[in-house]
C-alpha cells in the first residue's frame, strides 16, 4: 500500500495532498513546484526583472510566489512556516537546488515551464524555474514585486505528473483544488502503524492551546474547524463560546501529534520562512496547525466557496460535494443533487463491489504465483534429472565407441598378423628354392669346367633334367608377393559423425491428456459436436487424436474419429439417448491417456427439413426447406435431413395444394433410394401413396393394404416410425390408414416424399408422438 501513499513528484509520503481535476493526488508543496506561470507579455514585468535577463545571476536568488494564495492578498506572499517549507526554495538561499536550467522568462522557453528533470521532479514533470532577484534589491522585495506583477498579468496552470493533463488555475490558485483529507488520515494511520510515532516523542509533542497566556500553555482540548485554532477548556469558554456567530462552528478533538519525520522536514522551512514572514498570508493550517501536526489534522472539509459551511449535499452532474449555500445561490439549480450521506454509502458499496472483483483476481494471482514457484522448483529438479540423464547417455555412447574401437583394433591386428605370416612364409619358401637353385647352378658350372668328355656325358643328362625341373619350379607368379602391403580395411565413420552432429533432443514422451472444451461441445438433433485442445506449455508432439463414443446405452466405446483436427461432429446417432465421449492423443512414442468423459444428450424429438442436396433436381424447396413441390409432371423424390436408426419418431406433412388428383407418396427410404420415380417402387423405400379417395402401402412396387380415405387440399398426413417395434404407420387427418407395415427391417432410414407439380406440401417436425389417433378403415386390397 505504501506506493499508493507516495507523491509522484517527490516520491515521499503525501503531505497536504490536493486532488487535481484528473482525480490524481499531489502534495501541496510539490504542486507549487510543478505549477507553471505564463506571462501575458514581458512589458508587464517590473523593470528590475527585465533588467535581470542575461545578468547571469543565479536562479536561486529569489523564490516564485506561492500559487495557493489569493492574488489580492498583497505583495507579501512568501507564506508562513508551512508555505515556506513547501515553496520553491523557502528563501534566497534554498531554491538553487530545485531550479531548472532555463529562466522562466528566457527566450528559449517563452515563459513556459521546462520538462527538464531535476531533483525536485524525479519523473520529469514541469518545474517552475526561479525568478532571478534584481541587483541591489533584497530577496523579499523581489518576491513581493514578482508576486504582485504575476498576480495581475499572468495566468497559471498545473500539469499532472501521472497522466500529464494540464489544468488552469483560477484566481484562488492552488486553493481552488480540494484537500484530500481522507488520504491525509490514511497516511497518518500508516505512519503510526509503521512505528514512526514513538511514545516519548508523542508525549513531548502534545498539542497545546494557541491562545493561552499561561506558562507553559495548557494542552489543547478542542479544535475549531472553521477557525482552525486549538483551544484549551478555559480559553474555549472565554474566546470561543458556543453562541452567537460561533454557534455554527464545529469543535472536534485536537489532532494527534506529528511523526518525528514530519517535524524534522518542516523545521528547515520554518526557519527559512521566519525572516520574511511578516505580514505574510497564512497557509491552510496556519502556524498553530503546524504546531499541532500541520496538514495531518483530520477534520471534515468545508466548502471552498463558503469556508464556514460544511458539505451537506452531492451534485451528481458536477460530481462534487456542495454546501447548502451553494444550492441557495443557484449554482446547481438544474443539476441532480442528492444527500451526501446517501451518495457516500452508494459509492462505498460500488467500491466494495469493485474490490470484490479485484480481490478475486488478486487471489487468482497469488495462486498463479504459487503455481509459478512450483514450476520453478520443478524446472530445477527436472533440469538436474535431464543433466544426469544426458551425462549417462553420453557416457554410454563413449563406452560403446570405446568397445567398438577395441573390436576394430583387433580386426586390424589380425589382418596385420595374417599379412606378415603370408609374407614370411613366402620369404622362407623363396629363400629355400633360391638356395637350391644357386647350389645347382654352381655345381653345373663346375661340371662344365671339367675337360673329361666321357665323365661329362655320364652325368649331363641327369643334370639337364634337374636344371629343367628347377626352372619349371619358378612358375609364373612364384616371384610375385601373395599379399599387398596395403590394408583393405576402410572405416566408414561418416554416418557416425553425421549422427553425432545431429545428436539432439527428441521428444520421446507420450502426449498429455487432452482437455475437452465443454463450452464448444454441443448437440443438435441426433448429432453431437466435440472440441478439445492440448494443455498449455505442452512440448510433446502430437500426430493425431482418437475420439471414442459409446453406443448410447452405456455400452463399449468405439472409435468414431482418428485425425489431427480438434473439432469433430458425429451424425446419425439415436434420438433421446445419452452418449459418453472421450478423446486421447498419440504420437510416434505411443498413445496417451484418455481425457475426462463428457456426457451428451441428444434431442428428444427430431427437428429436420427437406434436404436440398439429396433431392431430385426437379424438386423445388421453399420456406426454409420446409415446403416442397416439383417442376415435373413425373414423381420425384426428396429426403429429409434427419436419419433414424432407433426410437419412435413422428412427423406430419400438410397438403398446401392438390390439383388434378395426383398420387403423392409418404414414407421412409434409404439414402440410396431411386429419386426419379414414385417412392416405394424399389426396395430402398417404404411408403404410402394416396389419391383423393384411398391409399395403398407400397414396397418393391408391390401394392398392399388398400384403405379408404384420401387427401385433398388442407389435409394432414402423419408418419409414425417405431424402430423399437419395427413398424411404420400412416395417418390422414388423424385417422390411421391400414395396418402397420415395415416389420423386421433394420438399418438407417430417412424421411422421404415423392410428388409431382400438382402437389405442394409443408413439413412439420419436432412433434411428440400422438396418443389419440384413430383406427383404420379397411376396404380390402
TrEMBL record:
<keyword id="KW-0863">Zinc-finger</keyword>
<dbReference type="InterPro" id="IPR013320">
    <property type="entry name" value="ConA-like_dom_sf"/>
</dbReference>
<feature type="domain" description="B box-type">
    <location>
        <begin position="211"/>
        <end position="254"/>
    </location>
</feature>
<keyword id="KW-0206">Cytoskeleton</keyword>
<dbReference type="GO" id="GO:0005737">
    <property type="term" value="C:cytoplasm"/>
</dbReference>
<feature type="region of interest" description="Disordered">
    <location>
        <begin position="42"/>
        <end position="79"/>
    </location>
</feature>
<dbReference type="InterPro" id="IPR003649">
    <property type="entry name" value="Bbox_C"/>
</dbReference>
<dbReference type="GO" id="GO:0005856">
    <property type="term" value="C:cytoskeleton"/>
</dbReference>
<feature type="domain" description="B box-type">
    <location>
        <begin position="298"/>
        <end position="340"/>
    </location>
</feature>
<dbReference type="InterPro" id="IPR050617">
    <property type="entry name" value="E3_ligase_FN3/SPRY"/>
</dbReference>
<feature type="domain" description="B30.2/SPRY">
    <location>
        <begin position="587"/>
        <end position="778"/>
    </location>
</feature>
<keyword id="KW-0479">Metal-binding</keyword>
<dbReference type="InterPro" id="IPR017903">
    <property type="entry name" value="COS_domain"/>
</dbReference>
<protein>
    <recommendedName>
        <fullName>Tripartite motif-containing protein 67</fullName>
    </recommendedName>
</protein>
<dbReference type="Pfam" id="PF22586">
    <property type="entry name" value="ANCHR-like_BBOX"/>
</dbReference>
<feature type="compositionally biased region" description="Low complexity">
    <location>
        <begin position="261"/>
        <end position="274"/>
    </location>
</feature>
<dbReference type="InterPro" id="IPR043136">
    <property type="entry name" value="B30.2/SPRY_sf"/>
</dbReference>
<feature type="region of interest" description="Disordered">
    <location>
        <begin position="250"/>
        <end position="285"/>
    </location>
</feature>
<dbReference type="InterPro" id="IPR001841">
    <property type="entry name" value="Znf_RING"/>
</dbReference>
<dbReference type="GO" id="GO:2000060">
    <property type="term" value="P:positive regulation of ubiquitin-dependent protein catabolic process"/>
</dbReference>
<dbReference type="GO" id="GO:0008270">
    <property type="term" value="F:zinc ion binding"/>
</dbReference>
<dbReference type="GO" id="GO:0046580">
    <property type="term" value="P:negative regulation of Ras protein signal transduction"/>
</dbReference>
<dbReference type="InterPro" id="IPR036116">
    <property type="entry name" value="FN3_sf"/>
</dbReference>
<feature type="domain" description="Fibronectin type-III">
    <location>
        <begin position="511"/>
        <end position="605"/>
    </location>
</feature>
<keyword id="KW-0677">Repeat</keyword>
<feature type="domain" description="COS">
    <location>
        <begin position="448"/>
        <end position="506"/>
    </location>
</feature>
<feature type="compositionally biased region" description="Gly residues">
    <location>
        <begin position="275"/>
        <end position="285"/>
    </location>
</feature>
<dbReference type="InterPro" id="IPR001870">
    <property type="entry name" value="B30.2/SPRY"/>
</dbReference>
<dbReference type="InterPro" id="IPR000315">
    <property type="entry name" value="Znf_B-box"/>
</dbReference>
<dbReference type="Pfam" id="PF00041">
    <property type="entry name" value="fn3"/>
</dbReference>
<feature type="compositionally biased region" description="Low complexity">
    <location>
        <begin position="56"/>
        <end position="76"/>
    </location>
</feature>
<dbReference type="InterPro" id="IPR013083">
    <property type="entry name" value="Znf_RING/FYVE/PHD"/>
</dbReference>
<keyword id="KW-0862">Zinc</keyword>
<dbReference type="Pfam" id="PF00622">
    <property type="entry name" value="SPRY"/>
</dbReference>
<dbReference type="InterPro" id="IPR013783">
    <property type="entry name" value="Ig-like_fold"/>
</dbReference>
<dbReference type="InterPro" id="IPR017907">
    <property type="entry name" value="Znf_RING_CS"/>
</dbReference>
<dbReference type="GO" id="GO:0010976">
    <property type="term" value="P:positive regulation of neuron projection development"/>
</dbReference>
<dbReference type="InterPro" id="IPR003877">
    <property type="entry name" value="SPRY_dom"/>
</dbReference>
<dbReference type="Pfam" id="PF00643">
    <property type="entry name" value="zf-B_box"/>
</dbReference>
<keyword id="KW-0963">Cytoplasm</keyword>
<keyword id="KW-0175">Coiled coil</keyword>
<dbReference type="InterPro" id="IPR003961">
    <property type="entry name" value="FN3_dom"/>
</dbReference>
Amino acid at each position: 500500500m505504501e506506493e499508493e501513499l507516495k507523491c509522484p513528484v517527490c516520491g515521499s509520503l503525501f503531505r497536504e495532498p490536493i486532488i487535481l481535476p484528473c482525480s490524481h493526488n499531489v502534495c501541496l508543496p510539490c504542486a507549487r513546484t510543478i505549477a507553471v506561470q505564463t506571462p501575458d507579455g514581458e512589458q508587464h514585468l517590473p523593470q528590475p526583472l527585465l533588467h535581470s535577463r542575461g545578468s547571469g545571476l543565479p536562479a536561486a536568488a529569489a523564490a516564485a510566489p506561492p500559487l495557493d494564495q489569493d492574488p489580492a492578498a498583497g505583495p507579501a506572499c512568501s507564506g508562513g512556516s508551512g508555505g515556506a517549507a513547501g515553496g520553491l526554495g523557502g528563501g534566497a538561499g534554498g531554491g538553487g537546488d530545485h531550479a531548472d536550467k532555463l529562466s522562466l522568462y528566457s527566450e528559449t522557453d517563452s515563459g513556459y515551464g521546462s520538462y527538464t528533470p531535476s531533483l525536485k521532479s524525479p519523473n520529469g514533470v514541469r518545474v517552475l524555474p526561479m525568478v532571478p532577484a534584481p541587483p541591489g534589491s533584497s530577496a523579499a522585495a523581489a518576491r513581493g514585486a514578482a508576486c504582485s506583477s504575476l498576480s495581475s498579468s499572468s495566468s497559471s496552470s498545473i500539469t499532472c505528473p501521472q497522466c500529464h493533463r494540464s489544468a488552469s488555475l483560477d484566481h484562488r490558485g492552488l486553493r481552488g483544488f480540494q484537500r484530500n483529507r481522507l488520504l491525509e488520515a490514511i497516511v497518518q494511520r500508516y505512519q503510526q502503524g509503521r512505528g514512526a510515532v514513538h511514545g516519548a516523542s508523542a508525549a513531548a509533542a502534545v498539542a497545546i492551546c494557541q491562545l493561552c497566556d499561561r506558562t507553559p500553555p495548557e494542552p489543547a482540548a478542542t479544535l475549531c474547524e472553521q477557525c482552525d485554532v486549538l483551544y484549551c477548556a478555559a480559553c474555549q469558554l472565554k474566546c470561543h463560546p458556543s453562541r452567537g456567530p460561533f454557534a455554527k462552528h464545529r469543535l472536534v478533538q485536537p489532532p494527534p501529534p506529528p511523526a518525528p519525520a514530519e517535524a524534522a522536514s518542516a523545521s528547515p522551512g520554518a526557519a527559512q520562512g521566519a525572516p520574511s514572514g511578516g505580514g505574510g498570508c497564512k497557509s491552510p493550517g496556519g502556524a498553530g496547525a503546524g504546531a499541532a501536526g500541520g496538514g495531518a489534522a483530520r477534520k471534515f472539509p468545508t466548502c471552498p466557496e463558503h469556508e464556514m459551511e460544511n458539505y451537506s449535499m452531492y451534485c451528481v452532474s458536477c460530481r462534487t460535494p456542495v454546501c447548502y449555500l451553494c444550492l441557495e445561490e443557484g449554482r446547481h439549480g438544474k443539476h441532480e443533487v442528492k444527500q451526501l450521506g446517501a451518495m457516500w454509502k452508494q459509492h462505498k458499496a460500488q467500491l466494495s463491489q469493485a474490490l470484490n472483483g479485484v480481490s478475486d483476481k488478486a487471489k487468482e494471482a497469488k495462486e498463479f504465483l504459487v503455481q509459478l514457484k512450483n514450476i520453478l522448483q520443478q524446472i530445477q529438479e527436472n533440469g538436474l534429472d535431464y543433466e544426469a540423464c544426458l551425462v549417462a547417455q553420453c557416457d554410454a555412447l563413449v563406452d560403446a565407441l570405446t568397445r567398438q574401437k577395441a573390436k576394430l583394433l583387433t580386426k586390424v591386428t589380425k589382418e596385420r598378423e595374417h599379412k606378415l605370416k603370408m609374407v614370411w612364409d613366402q620369404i622362407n619358401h623363396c629363400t629355400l628354392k633360391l638356395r637350391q637353385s644357386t647350389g645347382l647352378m654352381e655345381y653345373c658350372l663346375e661340371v662344365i669346367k671339367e675337360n673329361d668328355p666321357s665323365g661329362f656325358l655320364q652325368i649331363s643328362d641327369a643334370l639337364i633334367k634337374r636344371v629343367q625341373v628347377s626352372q619349371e619350379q619358378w612358375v609364373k607368379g612364384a616371384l610375385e608377393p601373395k599379399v599387398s602391403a596395403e590394408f583393405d580395411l576402410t572405416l566408414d565413420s561418416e554416418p557416425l559423425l553425421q549422427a553425432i552432429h545431429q545428436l539432439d533432443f527428441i521428444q520421446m514422451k507420450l502426449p498429455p491428456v487432452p482437455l475437452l472444451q465443454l463450452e464448444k461441445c454441443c448437440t443438435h438433433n441426433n448429432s453431437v459436436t466435440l472440441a478439445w485442445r492440448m494443455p498449455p506449455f505442452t512440448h510433446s508432439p502430437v500426430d493425431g487424436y482418437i475420439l471414442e463414443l459409446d453406443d448410447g446405452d452405456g455400452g463399449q466405446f468405439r472409435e468414431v474419429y482418428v485425425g489431427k483436427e480438434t473439432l469433430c461432429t458425429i451424425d446419425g446417432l439415436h434420438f433421446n439417448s445419452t452418449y459418453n465421449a472421450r478423446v486421447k492423443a498419440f504420437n510416434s512414442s505411443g498413445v496417451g491417456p484418455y481425457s475426462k468423459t463428457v456426457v451428451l444428450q441428444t434431442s428428444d424429438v427430431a427437428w429436420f427439413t427437406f434436404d436440398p442436396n439429396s433431392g431430385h433436381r426437379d424438386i423445388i424447396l421453399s420456406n426454409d426447406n420446409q415446403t416442397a413441390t416439383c417442376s415435373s409432371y413425373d414423381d420425384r423424390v426428396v429426403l429429409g435431413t434427419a436419419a433414424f436408426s432407433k426410437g419412435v419418431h413422428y412427423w406430419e406433412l400438410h397438403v398446401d395444394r392438390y390439383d388434378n388428383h395426383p398420387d403423392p407418396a409418404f414414407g421412409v427410404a434409404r439414402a440410396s433410394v431411386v429419386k426419379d420415380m414414385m417412392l416405394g417402387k424399389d426396395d430402398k423405400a417404404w411408403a404410402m401413396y394416396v389419391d383423393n379417395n384411398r391409399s395403398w402401402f407400397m414396397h418393391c412396387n408391390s401394392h398392399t393394404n388398400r384403405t379408404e380415405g384420401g387427401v385433398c387440399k388442407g389435409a394432414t398426413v402423419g408418419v409414425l416410425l417405431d424402430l423399437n417395434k419395427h413398424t411404420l404407420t400412416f395417418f390422414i387427418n388423424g385417422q390411421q390408414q391400414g395396418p402397420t407395415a415395415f416389420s423386421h427391417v433394420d438399418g438407417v432410414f430417412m424421411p422421404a416424399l415423392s410428388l409431382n407439380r400438382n402437389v405442394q406440401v409443408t413439413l412439420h417436425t419436432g412433434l411428440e408422438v400422438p396418443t389419440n389417433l384413430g383406427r383404420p378403415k379397411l376396404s380390402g386390397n
